[in-house]
Protein backbone atom coordinates (compact mmCIF):
# COMPACT_ATOMS: atom_id res chain seq x y z
CA UNK A 1 0.00 0.00 0.00
CA UNK A 2 1.19 3.62 -0.50
CA UNK A 3 3.68 5.08 1.94
CA UNK A 4 3.21 8.56 3.46
CA UNK A 5 4.10 11.13 0.83
CA UNK A 6 5.42 14.52 1.98
CA UNK A 7 5.24 15.89 -1.57
CA UNK A 8 1.52 15.17 -1.75
CA UNK A 9 0.95 16.73 1.65
CA UNK A 10 2.71 19.86 0.41
CA UNK A 11 0.63 19.80 -2.78
CA UNK A 12 -2.55 19.71 -0.72
CA UNK A 13 -1.44 22.44 1.63
CA UNK A 14 -0.42 24.79 -1.17
CA UNK A 15 -3.42 24.35 -3.43
CA UNK A 16 -6.57 23.48 -1.50
CA UNK A 17 -7.10 27.18 -0.72
CA UNK A 18 -7.61 27.71 -4.46
CA UNK A 19 -10.49 25.22 -4.66
CA UNK A 20 -13.92 26.84 -4.48
CA UNK A 21 -15.17 27.04 -0.90
CA UNK A 22 -18.60 25.99 -2.20
CA UNK A 23 -17.24 22.45 -2.35
CA UNK A 24 -17.04 20.73 1.02
CA UNK A 25 -14.98 17.63 1.84
CA UNK A 26 -15.68 14.73 4.16
CA UNK A 27 -11.96 13.95 4.45
CA UNK A 28 -9.45 16.79 4.27
CA UNK A 29 -6.80 14.62 2.60
CA UNK A 30 -5.91 13.14 -0.80
CA UNK A 31 -7.11 9.67 -1.71
CA UNK A 32 -4.18 8.07 -3.54
CA UNK A 33 -5.32 4.46 -3.94
CA UNK A 34 -8.51 2.43 -3.90
CA UNK A 35 -8.98 -1.33 -4.02
CA UNK A 36 -12.29 -3.07 -3.50
CA UNK A 37 -14.05 -1.52 -0.52
CA UNK A 38 -10.91 0.20 0.81
CA UNK A 39 -9.08 3.47 0.10
CA UNK A 40 -5.82 4.98 1.32
CA UNK A 41 -4.83 8.62 1.71
CA UNK A 42 -1.46 10.37 1.30
CA UNK A 43 -0.62 9.63 4.95
CA UNK A 44 -1.11 5.90 4.28
CA UNK A 45 -4.25 5.77 6.42
CA UNK A 46 -6.62 3.01 5.40
CA UNK A 47 -10.41 3.41 5.35
CA UNK A 48 -13.34 1.19 4.45
CA UNK A 49 -15.30 3.32 2.00
CA UNK A 50 -18.93 3.06 3.13
CA UNK A 51 -19.79 5.85 0.67
CA UNK A 52 -18.70 4.12 -2.58
CA UNK A 53 -18.16 7.60 -4.02
CA UNK A 54 -21.83 8.31 -3.17
CA UNK A 55 -23.11 5.05 -4.61
CA UNK A 56 -20.86 4.98 -7.69
CA UNK A 57 -18.11 2.36 -7.26
CA UNK A 58 -20.59 -0.48 -6.89
CA UNK A 59 -18.00 -3.07 -7.94
CA UNK A 60 -15.39 -1.54 -5.66
CA UNK A 61 -12.45 0.70 -6.41
CA UNK A 62 -10.20 -0.26 -9.35
CA UNK A 63 -12.12 -3.40 -10.28
CA UNK A 64 -9.75 -5.40 -12.53
CA UNK A 65 -12.34 -6.07 -15.26
CA UNK A 66 -13.25 -2.40 -15.49
CA UNK A 67 -9.59 -1.35 -15.43
CA UNK A 68 -8.71 -3.77 -18.24
CA UNK A 69 -11.63 -2.61 -20.40
CA UNK A 70 -10.69 1.04 -19.95
CA UNK A 71 -7.02 0.47 -20.77
CA UNK A 72 -7.94 -1.48 -23.89
CA UNK A 73 -10.36 1.21 -25.08
CA UNK A 74 -7.93 4.07 -24.45
CA UNK A 75 -5.50 2.28 -26.76
CA UNK A 76 -8.16 2.05 -29.51
CA UNK A 77 -10.01 5.38 -29.57
CA UNK A 78 -10.64 7.75 -26.67
CA UNK A 79 -13.37 9.99 -28.05
CA UNK A 80 -16.10 9.52 -30.62
CA UNK A 81 -18.62 12.33 -30.55
CA UNK A 82 -22.06 10.74 -30.47
CA UNK A 83 -23.52 12.92 -33.25
CA UNK A 84 -20.63 12.19 -35.64
CA UNK A 85 -20.38 8.40 -35.52
CA UNK A 86 -20.99 5.29 -33.43
CA UNK A 87 -18.39 3.67 -31.19
CA UNK A 88 -18.10 -0.05 -30.52
CA UNK A 89 -18.57 0.25 -26.72
CA UNK A 90 -21.68 2.42 -27.17
CA UNK A 91 -23.33 -0.28 -29.28
CA UNK A 92 -22.11 -3.08 -27.02
CA UNK A 93 -23.57 -1.30 -24.02
CA UNK A 94 -26.97 -1.08 -25.71
CA UNK A 95 -26.71 -4.79 -26.53
CA UNK A 96 -25.88 -5.67 -22.90
CA UNK A 97 -28.57 -3.44 -21.39
CA UNK A 98 -31.50 -4.63 -23.49
CA UNK A 99 -31.89 -8.04 -21.77
CA UNK A 100 -31.52 -6.66 -18.24
CA UNK A 101 -33.99 -3.78 -18.43
CA UNK A 102 -36.99 -4.23 -16.10
CA UNK A 103 -39.25 -4.49 -19.15
CA UNK A 104 -38.56 -5.13 -22.84
CA UNK A 105 -40.57 -2.01 -23.75
CA UNK A 106 -37.66 0.10 -22.46
CA UNK A 107 -35.75 -0.45 -25.67
CA UNK A 108 -34.35 2.93 -26.73
CA UNK A 109 -31.38 4.62 -25.05
CA UNK A 110 -29.35 7.79 -24.86
CA UNK A 111 -26.11 8.04 -22.87
CA UNK A 112 -24.91 11.23 -21.25
CA UNK A 113 -22.35 12.10 -18.56
CA UNK A 114 -24.18 12.55 -15.25
CA UNK A 115 -27.44 11.70 -13.55
CA UNK A 116 -28.50 15.34 -13.58
CA UNK A 117 -28.04 15.49 -17.36
CA UNK A 118 -30.18 12.38 -17.79
CA UNK A 119 -32.89 14.11 -15.76
CA UNK A 120 -32.58 17.24 -17.90
CA UNK A 121 -33.21 15.15 -21.00
CA UNK A 122 -36.12 13.33 -19.32
CA UNK A 123 -37.78 16.67 -18.56
CA UNK A 124 -37.33 17.91 -22.14
CA UNK A 125 -38.45 14.60 -23.61
CA UNK A 126 -41.60 14.18 -21.53
CA UNK A 127 -42.69 17.75 -22.22
CA UNK A 128 -42.03 17.35 -25.95
CA UNK A 129 -43.74 13.98 -26.10
CA UNK A 130 -46.92 15.04 -24.30
CA UNK A 131 -47.01 18.68 -25.40
CA UNK A 132 -47.70 19.56 -21.77
CA UNK A 133 -45.80 22.18 -19.72
CA UNK A 134 -45.70 20.98 -16.10
CA UNK A 135 -43.96 18.41 -13.92
CA UNK A 136 -44.95 16.79 -10.61
CA UNK A 137 -42.13 15.69 -8.32
CA UNK A 138 -41.86 14.17 -4.85
CA UNK A 139 -41.34 16.09 -1.64
CA UNK A 140 -37.92 14.99 -0.39
CA UNK A 141 -36.74 13.87 -3.82
CA UNK A 142 -33.32 14.65 -5.28
CA UNK A 143 -32.56 14.70 -9.01
CA UNK A 144 -29.42 16.83 -9.39
CA UNK A 145 -27.98 20.34 -9.20
CA UNK A 146 -28.23 21.56 -12.78
CA UNK A 147 -31.00 24.01 -13.65
CA UNK A 148 -34.03 21.85 -14.43
CA UNK A 149 -32.86 18.95 -12.25
CA UNK A 150 -32.50 21.19 -9.20
CA UNK A 151 -35.91 22.68 -9.96
CA UNK A 152 -37.55 19.30 -9.32
CA UNK A 153 -35.32 18.55 -6.31
CA UNK A 154 -37.07 18.88 -2.95
CA UNK A 155 -34.65 17.31 -0.45
CA UNK A 156 -32.97 20.52 0.76
CA UNK A 157 -33.24 24.21 -0.09
CA UNK A 158 -29.44 24.49 -0.41
CA UNK A 159 -29.63 23.13 -3.97
CA UNK A 160 -31.59 26.14 -5.22
CA UNK A 161 -30.38 28.74 -2.74
CA UNK A 162 -30.21 32.19 -4.33
CA UNK A 163 -31.11 31.00 -7.82
CA UNK A 164 -34.21 31.21 -9.95
CA UNK A 165 -35.68 27.80 -10.72
CA UNK A 166 -37.78 26.45 -13.55
CA UNK A 167 -41.49 27.16 -13.29
CA UNK A 168 -44.30 24.68 -13.70
CA UNK A 169 -43.09 22.29 -10.99
CA UNK A 170 -45.41 20.92 -8.31
CA UNK A 171 -44.35 18.78 -5.36
CA UNK A 172 -46.50 16.11 -3.73
CA UNK A 173 -45.75 14.24 -0.48
CA UNK A 174 -43.90 10.94 -0.70
CA UNK A 175 -45.28 8.26 1.68
CA UNK A 176 -42.71 9.16 4.34
CA UNK A 177 -43.81 9.98 7.86
CA UNK A 178 -41.95 13.30 7.92
CA UNK A 179 -43.60 14.45 4.68
CA UNK A 180 -47.02 13.71 6.11
CA UNK A 181 -46.39 14.98 9.67
CA UNK A 182 -47.11 11.70 11.45
CA UNK A 183 -45.31 9.24 13.73
CA UNK A 184 -42.51 7.03 12.38
CA UNK A 185 -44.58 4.08 13.60
CA UNK A 186 -47.45 4.90 11.20
CA UNK A 187 -48.30 1.78 9.15
CA UNK A 188 -47.20 1.80 5.53
CA UNK A 189 -50.73 1.48 4.16
CA UNK A 190 -51.78 4.63 6.06
CA UNK A 191 -48.82 6.57 4.69
CA UNK A 192 -49.69 5.52 1.15
CA UNK A 193 -53.36 6.42 1.64
CA UNK A 194 -52.44 9.90 2.88
CA UNK A 195 -49.97 10.44 0.03
CA UNK A 196 -52.62 9.38 -2.50
CA UNK A 197 -55.07 11.90 -1.04
CA UNK A 198 -52.51 14.70 -1.31
CA UNK A 199 -51.72 13.90 -4.95
CA UNK A 200 -55.42 13.84 -5.82
CA UNK A 201 -55.81 17.23 -4.12
CA UNK A 202 -52.85 18.60 -6.04
CA UNK A 203 -54.50 18.01 -9.41
CA UNK A 204 -57.79 19.44 -8.13
CA UNK A 205 -56.38 22.56 -6.50
CA UNK A 206 -53.04 23.47 -8.08
CA UNK A 207 -52.52 22.06 -11.57
CA UNK A 208 -54.90 20.41 -14.03
CA UNK A 209 -53.81 16.87 -14.89
CA UNK A 210 -54.11 17.69 -18.60
CA UNK A 211 -51.28 20.21 -18.09
CA UNK A 212 -48.88 17.71 -16.48
CA UNK A 213 -46.30 16.03 -18.71
CA UNK A 214 -44.86 13.62 -16.16
CA UNK A 215 -44.41 12.55 -12.58
CA UNK A 216 -40.81 12.05 -11.47
CA UNK A 217 -40.12 9.70 -8.57
CA UNK A 218 -37.08 8.05 -7.02
CA UNK A 219 -38.09 4.51 -6.03
CA UNK A 220 -35.94 5.05 -2.95
CA UNK A 221 -35.83 8.70 -1.90
CA UNK A 222 -32.07 9.17 -1.90
CA UNK A 223 -30.48 12.35 -0.62
CA UNK A 224 -33.80 13.09 1.07
CA UNK A 225 -33.34 10.26 3.56
CA UNK A 226 -33.08 6.79 1.93
CA UNK A 227 -36.81 6.06 2.11
CA UNK A 228 -37.99 3.09 -0.02
CA UNK A 229 -41.24 3.51 -1.92
CA UNK A 230 -43.92 1.00 -0.90
CA UNK A 231 -44.91 -1.23 -3.80
CA UNK A 232 -48.49 0.02 -3.50
CA UNK A 233 -47.30 3.61 -4.02
CA UNK A 234 -45.45 2.79 -7.24
CA UNK A 235 -48.44 0.82 -8.52
CA UNK A 236 -50.70 3.77 -7.72
CA UNK A 237 -48.40 6.17 -9.58
CA UNK A 238 -48.50 3.86 -12.59
CA UNK A 239 -52.31 3.77 -12.54
CA UNK A 240 -52.59 7.51 -11.87
CA UNK A 241 -50.28 8.60 -14.68
CA UNK A 242 -51.87 6.22 -17.17
CA UNK A 243 -55.35 7.47 -16.24
CA UNK A 244 -54.38 11.10 -16.80
CA UNK A 245 -52.17 10.68 -19.87
CA UNK A 246 -48.99 11.59 -17.98
CA UNK A 247 -45.64 9.82 -18.28
CA UNK A 248 -44.02 8.15 -15.27
CA UNK A 249 -40.28 8.74 -14.89
CA UNK A 250 -38.50 6.54 -12.35
CA UNK A 251 -35.12 7.95 -11.34
CA UNK A 252 -32.89 4.91 -10.77
CA UNK A 253 -29.67 6.96 -10.83
CA UNK A 254 -28.74 5.64 -7.40
CA UNK A 255 -30.89 2.51 -7.10
CA UNK A 256 -29.88 0.96 -10.43
CA UNK A 257 -27.15 -1.61 -11.01
CA UNK A 258 -27.65 -3.84 -8.02
CA UNK A 259 -27.74 -1.29 -5.24
CA UNK A 260 -31.02 -2.60 -3.75
CA UNK A 261 -30.43 -6.32 -4.34
CA UNK A 262 -31.85 -6.46 -7.87
CA UNK A 263 -30.52 -4.80 -11.00
CA UNK A 264 -33.31 -2.21 -10.73
CA UNK A 265 -35.51 -1.27 -7.83
CA UNK A 266 -38.44 -1.40 -10.25
CA UNK A 267 -37.98 -5.20 -10.31
CA UNK A 268 -39.00 -5.40 -6.64
CA UNK A 269 -42.55 -4.52 -7.73
CA UNK A 270 -44.00 -7.30 -9.85
CA UNK A 271 -45.44 -6.09 -13.13
CA UNK A 272 -44.36 -2.48 -12.59
CA UNK A 273 -43.26 -0.76 -15.81
CA UNK A 274 -42.38 2.95 -15.91
CA UNK A 275 -42.39 4.96 -19.14
CA UNK A 276 -38.86 6.27 -18.59
CA UNK A 277 -35.91 5.18 -16.44
CA UNK A 278 -32.86 7.35 -15.74
CA UNK A 279 -29.65 5.75 -14.47
CA UNK A 280 -26.01 6.65 -13.75
CA UNK A 281 -23.75 6.14 -10.67
CA UNK A 282 -23.05 2.37 -10.69
CA UNK A 283 -23.38 2.17 -14.48
CA UNK A 284 -19.67 2.72 -15.22
CA UNK A 285 -18.18 2.21 -11.74
CA UNK A 286 -16.74 5.72 -11.44
CA UNK A 287 -16.43 6.85 -15.05
CA UNK A 288 -18.77 9.71 -16.01
CA UNK A 289 -21.70 8.07 -17.77
CA UNK A 290 -25.45 8.20 -17.42
CA UNK A 291 -28.36 6.89 -19.40
CA UNK A 292 -32.03 7.24 -20.12
CA UNK A 293 -34.21 4.43 -21.43
CA UNK A 294 -37.75 4.64 -22.76
CA UNK A 295 -40.04 3.33 -25.45
CA UNK A 296 -39.07 4.26 -28.97
CA UNK A 297 -42.44 5.93 -29.57
CA UNK A 298 -41.59 8.42 -26.81
CA UNK A 299 -37.94 8.91 -27.75
CA UNK A 300 -38.65 9.49 -31.44
CA UNK A 301 -40.70 12.60 -30.66
CA UNK A 302 -37.37 14.36 -29.98
CA UNK A 303 -36.31 15.75 -33.35
CA UNK A 304 -32.66 15.13 -34.36
CA UNK A 305 -30.48 17.87 -32.94
CA UNK A 306 -32.58 18.51 -29.84
CA UNK A 307 -30.30 16.30 -27.77
CA UNK A 308 -26.56 15.63 -27.81
CA UNK A 309 -23.38 16.57 -26.00
CA UNK A 310 -19.67 16.80 -26.69
CA UNK A 311 -18.75 13.99 -24.29
CA UNK A 312 -22.09 12.14 -24.24
CA UNK A 313 -21.60 8.37 -24.39
CA UNK A 314 -17.80 8.61 -24.38
CA UNK A 315 -16.36 5.28 -25.59
CA UNK A 316 -14.00 4.88 -22.63
CA UNK A 317 -16.86 5.35 -20.17
CA UNK A 318 -19.06 3.02 -22.23
CA UNK A 319 -16.30 0.39 -22.22
CA UNK A 320 -16.24 0.60 -18.42
CA UNK A 321 -20.01 0.15 -18.36
CA UNK A 322 -19.85 -2.86 -20.67
CA UNK A 323 -17.36 -4.44 -18.26
CA UNK A 324 -19.72 -3.70 -15.35
CA UNK A 325 -22.59 -5.51 -17.05
CA UNK A 326 -20.33 -8.49 -17.78
CA UNK A 327 -19.26 -8.71 -14.13
CA UNK A 328 -22.90 -8.83 -13.05
CA UNK A 329 -23.40 -11.74 -15.47
CA UNK A 330 -20.46 -13.77 -14.22
CA UNK A 331 -20.10 -12.99 -10.51
CA UNK A 332 -22.56 -13.35 -7.58
CA UNK A 333 -22.82 -9.60 -6.95
CA UNK A 334 -26.54 -9.54 -6.13
CA UNK A 335 -26.20 -12.51 -3.80
CA UNK A 336 -23.52 -10.64 -1.88
CA UNK A 337 -25.67 -7.50 -1.71
CA UNK A 338 -28.49 -9.40 -0.05
CA UNK A 339 -26.22 -11.25 2.37
CA UNK A 340 -24.35 -8.13 3.45
CA UNK A 341 -27.63 -6.21 3.67
CA UNK A 342 -28.97 -8.75 6.18
CA UNK A 343 -25.73 -8.39 8.15
CA UNK A 344 -26.01 -4.59 8.26
CA UNK A 345 -29.72 -4.55 9.10
CA UNK A 346 -29.12 -7.00 11.94
CA UNK A 347 -26.69 -4.52 13.51
CA UNK A 348 -28.88 -1.45 13.01
CA UNK A 349 -32.07 -3.14 14.22
CA UNK A 350 -30.23 -4.39 17.31
CA UNK A 351 -29.21 -0.80 18.09
CA UNK A 352 -32.82 0.32 17.69
CA UNK A 353 -34.06 -2.48 19.96
CA UNK A 354 -31.39 -1.96 22.63
CA UNK A 355 -32.45 -0.16 25.83
CA UNK A 356 -29.05 1.58 25.77
CA UNK A 357 -29.39 3.14 22.32
CA UNK A 358 -32.94 2.63 21.06
CA UNK A 359 -34.24 5.92 22.42
CA UNK A 360 -31.85 7.76 20.09
CA UNK A 361 -33.18 6.08 16.95
CA UNK A 362 -36.36 7.04 15.13
CA UNK A 363 -36.11 4.71 12.15
CA UNK A 364 -34.01 2.07 10.41
CA UNK A 365 -34.86 1.60 6.73
CA UNK A 366 -33.60 0.89 3.24
CA UNK A 367 -33.20 -1.87 0.70
CA UNK A 368 -30.17 -3.94 -0.20
CA UNK A 369 -27.06 -1.85 0.44
CA UNK A 370 -28.89 1.47 0.37
CA UNK A 371 -29.60 1.78 4.08
CA UNK A 372 -30.29 4.56 6.59
CA UNK A 373 -30.60 5.11 10.30
CA UNK A 374 -32.52 8.21 11.35
CA UNK A 375 -31.90 9.70 14.78
CA UNK A 376 -34.42 11.49 16.94
CA UNK A 377 -34.29 15.23 17.48
CA UNK A 378 -35.78 17.25 20.32
CA UNK A 379 -37.92 19.46 18.10
CA UNK A 380 -39.61 16.47 16.47
CA UNK A 381 -39.96 13.71 19.02
CA UNK A 382 -39.77 13.07 22.72
CA UNK A 383 -37.25 10.41 23.59
CA UNK A 384 -38.89 7.40 25.14
CA UNK A 385 -37.68 7.00 28.66
CA UNK A 386 -35.42 10.05 28.52
CA UNK A 387 -34.99 11.83 31.85
CA UNK A 388 -32.54 14.48 30.67
CA UNK A 389 -32.05 16.76 27.67
CA UNK A 390 -32.28 15.20 24.23
CA UNK A 391 -28.82 14.86 22.63
CA UNK A 392 -28.32 17.22 19.69
CA UNK A 393 -26.65 16.53 16.34
CA UNK A 394 -26.58 12.80 17.02
CA UNK A 395 -25.83 11.90 13.41
CA UNK A 396 -22.83 14.21 13.06
CA UNK A 397 -21.37 12.98 16.34
CA UNK A 398 -21.87 9.34 15.38
CA UNK A 399 -20.39 10.03 11.94
CA UNK A 400 -17.21 11.51 13.41
CA UNK A 401 -16.72 8.57 15.73
CA UNK A 402 -17.17 6.10 12.87
CA UNK A 403 -14.71 7.95 10.64
CA UNK A 404 -12.21 8.03 13.52
CA UNK A 405 -12.41 4.22 13.47
CA UNK A 406 -11.47 4.10 9.78
CA UNK A 407 -14.85 3.98 8.06
CA UNK A 408 -16.06 6.68 5.64
CA UNK A 409 -19.78 7.34 6.16
CA UNK A 410 -22.17 10.10 5.09
CA UNK A 411 -25.14 11.85 6.62
CA UNK A 412 -28.04 12.94 4.43
CA UNK A 413 -31.35 14.85 4.22
CA UNK A 414 -32.62 17.80 6.25
CA UNK A 415 -33.38 15.34 9.05
CA UNK A 416 -30.78 13.70 11.29
CA UNK A 417 -30.05 10.72 9.07
CA UNK A 418 -26.97 8.64 8.33
CA UNK A 419 -26.73 6.63 5.10
CA UNK A 420 -24.76 3.49 4.39
CA UNK A 421 -23.83 2.77 0.74
CA UNK A 422 -20.74 0.52 0.66
CA UNK A 423 -19.48 -1.11 -2.53
CA UNK A 424 -21.59 -4.11 -3.46
CA UNK A 425 -18.48 -6.31 -3.28
CA UNK A 426 -17.82 -5.56 0.40
CA UNK A 427 -16.80 -8.74 2.20
CA UNK A 428 -18.38 -10.31 5.25
CA UNK A 429 -15.29 -9.41 7.28
CA UNK A 430 -15.25 -5.79 6.11
CA UNK A 431 -18.95 -5.47 6.89
CA UNK A 432 -18.35 -6.92 10.36
CA UNK A 433 -15.62 -4.32 10.97
CA UNK A 434 -17.95 -1.52 9.87
CA UNK A 435 -20.85 -2.83 11.95
CA UNK A 436 -18.65 -2.94 15.02
CA UNK A 437 -17.57 0.67 14.42
CA UNK A 438 -21.19 1.78 13.97
CA UNK A 439 -22.26 0.05 17.17
CA UNK A 440 -19.38 1.51 19.16
CA UNK A 441 -20.09 5.02 17.90
CA UNK A 442 -23.83 4.95 18.66
CA UNK A 443 -23.24 3.47 22.12
CA UNK A 444 -20.63 6.14 22.92
CA UNK A 445 -22.98 8.96 21.89
CA UNK A 446 -25.77 7.41 23.95
CA UNK A 447 -23.52 7.33 27.03
CA UNK A 448 -22.33 10.90 26.50
CA UNK A 449 -25.91 12.21 26.17
UniProtKB/TrEMBL annotation:
The keyword Transferase applies. It comes from the Eukaryota. This is 4-aminobutyrate aminotransferase. The keyword Zinc does not apply. Gene3D superfamilies: Aspartate Aminotransferase, domain 1, Type I PLP-dependent aspartate aminotransferase-like (Major domain). Its cofactor is pyridoxal 5'-phosphate. Pfam families: Aminotran_3 (PF00202). Keywords: Aminotransferase, Pyridoxal phosphate, Transferase. Belongs to the class-III pyridoxal-phosphate-dependent aminotransferase family. GO terms for molecular function: identical protein binding; pyridoxal phosphate binding; transaminase activity. SUPFAM superfamilies: PLP-dependent transferases (SSF53383). CDD domains: OAT_like (cd00610).
Amino acid sequence: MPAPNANLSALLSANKKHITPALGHLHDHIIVKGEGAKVWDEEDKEYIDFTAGIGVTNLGHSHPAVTAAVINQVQQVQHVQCSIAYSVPYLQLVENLLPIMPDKSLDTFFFWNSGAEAIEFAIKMTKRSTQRPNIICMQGGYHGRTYAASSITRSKTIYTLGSHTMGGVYATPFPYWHSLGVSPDTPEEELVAMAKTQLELLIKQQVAPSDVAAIFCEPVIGEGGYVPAPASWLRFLREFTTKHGMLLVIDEVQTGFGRTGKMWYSEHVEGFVPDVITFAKGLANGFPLSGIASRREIMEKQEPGTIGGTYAGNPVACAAAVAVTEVFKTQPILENVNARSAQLFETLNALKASPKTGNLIADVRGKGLMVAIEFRTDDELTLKGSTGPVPKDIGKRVQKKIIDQGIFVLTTSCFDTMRFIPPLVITEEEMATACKAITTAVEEVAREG
